[in-house]
Structure formats: C-alpha cells, structure tokens
Sequence to fold (191 residues):
Amino acid sequence: MRAVALLLTLFCLLTVYFVARSWISARRAVVVVLLVLSGMGFLRRVLGVQQLADLSRSRAPLMLTLTAAMAVVTTLATAQVVAYGAMPGPGRLSASTVPVARRLKSDGPCLLVTGYAPELGWYPGCDTASYAHFRRTPPPPGTRVTLVLFERGRLQPDEASLKRLIGDRASDTRTIPTTGEIGDATVITLR
Fold:
C-alpha cells in the first residue's frame, strides 16, 4: 500500500511539474514542485493529516493511499481548469483580431500599429509595432502603415493622440466588423 501511495504522490508531483513547465521556465517549475512538497509537509504536520494516520495505525496505508489519490484527482482537475477554464480570453480575442488581420494582407512591406502586437501581424505577414514604439521610431520609407483600433481595445491612443500620430498625412479609414470581445476595428491606412 505504501508503494502505491508513493507512486501516486510521485505521479502527482510530476503532473504539477509538467503543468507548471508548460506555463513557466523549468527552474520555476521545480520551485513550484518544491512549494507543493513543503505544502504537503505542512498538511501532514499542522493540519493533522499525520495525526489521522497515527490514530488509525492499522488503516494508515489505506489513509495514505486515499490522500494521495485525492491529491492526484485534485491536481488533474486543477490542470484542466488552468488549461481550459482560467484562460478563456485569448480564444475570444482571436474572434476580433483574426478577421481584421486577414483583411490587411499586403503585397509589399507593411506595418500594423496596434495594441495587439505581434498577434495581428501573423496572418497578413506584416511587421507590428505598439503606438508608443510608432511615436518614437518612424517606419522605413515605402512601408504601408496601418493603424488598427478596436472598440474596446487596450493600449490605444485617445483621439487627440491619434490626430498627432496621423499628422498631415492623407489616410483612408474603414471599419471591419468582428464578433470578438474587443469589438469592431477601425483601420486607418496612412498614404
């Protein structure tokens, strides 16, 4: 029974490591595993898990196995919540960014100025820059520059800042409807 409990605990720790490793660096994943191990020691000593095992000496292996099994189930459930439930935003975000990006394909060099760099540049094959970077660094000559603003977008200039960005350059403005959470896009192509 102890061997089964040890195997389940090892499986639990490996699962914690690989889930953490998919989100952070290997070193930090090891730190997470060490924190989980210290937490197990805390549970055993302070919260009385060890006392329960001491009280039921004859059933200690069964109790340890059940505790390890519960830890494995909890770890797997947590991994599923993190993988599929805790990050719903990026999936819905693509419902706004992908349709816009696909409509901005260019034959020549292009620069998309947006709060959603680099995601927005992947589909059309354009370079991307934030508004702050665009203010500081002018694009190379011959580059088609397009400013992309979403109804509920992040890191976007206000109206006065947008007018300063455009300056005296001629521009074409159009709206691209989307179904995503950040709304329709206003696309301003500078000429």
